[in-house]
Specification:
About 5% of the residues lie in helices and about 35% in strands. The chain is mainly β and about 450 residues long. It starts with 12 loop residues before the first strand and ends in an 11-residue tail after the last helix. It comes from Streptomyces avermitilis (strain ATCC 31267 / DSM 46492 / JCM 5070 / NBRC 14893 / NCIMB 12804 / NRRL 8165 / MA-4680).
Length: about 450
């Protein structure tokens, strides 16, 4: 094992245990600079077998369960985007697991303190670390796991790309969904017809004659459908750019998955202390992801764990809440799914989070919200630092305008009045007008 203060030189390798590992792609936190997104490619003879061998923010888990993307955390002055890799579950055909990163909104030369770190997921000990030197690169192969004589090793690679995640993905055989651009149609070309159909010879009728019976067409096997290209695009909402059109992103059908993850602080109870800071007295932090909905026929309601109002995906309200999670992990976390195949039934949906127990405020809680449409770009945003004793936070407002489906970042912390529930507080703030009764879960 390597010590915490030892880093690997470029090109070097080290044995790693065939066990569960956590790969952290990290940087120093601070204002400005690009976001850094980790990804993994599972390779055979230097290429992926299919687009399913690419694990990243829009495709967060491999079908084998060997690799999954666990998302971003900020703590202790560091921002890390993490991959979980279980080498014991990597399929025998896979020779290498490439560990890459891309810079969203700049180059890696603008990323302070870039590193990749491999940690034993069970013991928490550092296995390997590599600090690459970067300038104008927008994507990096930082390292890789590879098989050697029946064992696994980690190599510090440090190969940069100037063509971003798209160029890196294509280099390993990924089919990328490129943006479509409207092109002018040539003046004498019919849209949607093959070129040979435009020639005078092909357009002329055949000479008259007795009909000739045609032989039955041969039995053919239809070609396999082309795989859906991988979407690399994502949208990060900020205070300056707080909204996005799902319609323009192509994300208006299928399942829209809303995930809330957070940095769980086991010794955190919320607001208190001499200067209004967090007090470390309670162990279990339980956040609940919820949604207020208003349907196009005027019906209103709530989807939440409280009162076992988990909703339904295939009948009104077409919103379903998964089980109740306390870990805050991206792979699980709190998840809510919206059936966009019934988007005409929605007028508006307000996604919010409440503290059920374990804290009296969101202070010092680092949380990220991700909306992942089945057929569009992922939409994510981070919650701002909470500076008030809030127990309920409005996360995102989804509005159906008739012509468009809009997502608005709210990130709005509310403070309930004495004796008023968090649900009633957010109802009043957004004018839902519902009647509330006490409930439990």
């Amino acid at each position: 094992m390597m010590g915490a203060d030892m880093t690997m030189p470029k090109g070097s390798n080290i044995p790693v245990p065939t066990t569960a590992l956590r790969v952290e792609v990290g940087r120093r936190s601070g204002p400005g600079g690009p976001d850094v997104d980790a990804s993994a490619l599972l390779l055979v003879s230097g290429k992926v077998r299919s687009d399913g061998d690419f694990v990243f923010y829009n495709q967060p888990a491999h079908s084998s369960g060997a690799v999954r993307h666990e998302g971003t955390r900020e703590a202790g002055g560091q921002v890390t985007d993490t991959l979980f890799v279980d080498l014991a579950r990597v399929e025998p055909a896979i020779e290498r697991v490439v560990l890459a990163a891309s810079a969203d909104g700049g180059t890696f030369g603008q990323v302070p303190g870039l590193y990749i770190r491999v940690v034993d997921a069970r013991q928490g000990s550092e296995v390997a670390r590599f600090d690459p030197t970067a300038t104008v690169e927008t994507a990096f192969v930082l390292g890789e796991f590879y098989r050697r004589q029946g064992a696994w090793k980690f190599r510090a690679v440090g190969q940069g790309y100037g063509s971003g995640l798209e160029g890196l993905a294509k280099d390993f055989g990924i089919t990328v969904d490129e943006p479509q651009h409207l092109l002018p149609t040539p003046r004498h070309t019919r849209v949607g017809r093959p070129a040979e159909a435009q020639s005078p010879q092909a357009a002329a009728p055949p000479p008259a004659g007795p009909p000739v019976p045609l032989p039955p067409p041969p039995m053919t096997v239809p070609p396999a459908a082309s795989p859906t290209p991988v979407r690399l695009s994502k949208v990060t909402l900020t205070k300056e750019a707080p909204s996005v059109s799902l319609t323009k992103q192509g994300g208006t059908s299928g399942a829209l998955r809303v995930n809330l993850n957070w940095q769980m602080r086991k010794q955190f109870s919320g607001w208190g202390g001499k200067r209004g800071r967090a007090v470390a007295t309670h162990a279990d932090l339980d956040l609940d992801l919820c949604a207020l909905y208003e349907l196009s026929d005027g019906r209103k309601g709530v989807v939440q764990a409280l009162g076992n109002a988990f909703g339904s995906l295939y009948r009104p309200p077409y919103i379903h809440l998964d089980g109740d999670d306390r870990s805050g992990a991206v792979a699980s976390g709190e998840n809510l799914t919206v059936n966009l195949d019934h988007k005409q039934s929605f007028r508006r949906i307000l996604v919010f989070v409440t503290i059920y127990e374990g804290a009296r405020s969101f202070a010092d809680l680092h949380a990220t919200v991700t909306l992942q449409p089945q057929n569009g770009a992922a939409v994510d945003f981070s919650l701002d630092e909470c500076t008030v004793p809030s127990t309920v936070c409005a996360l995102a407002l989804i509005t159906n305008t008739g012509a468009d489906l809009l997502v608005q970042r709210e990130a709005r912390y509310l403070i309930p009045e004495r004796g008023v529930s968090p649900q009633r507080t957010i109802d009043h703030a957004y004018g839902w007008g519902m009647n509330w009764t006490p409930g439990r879960k």
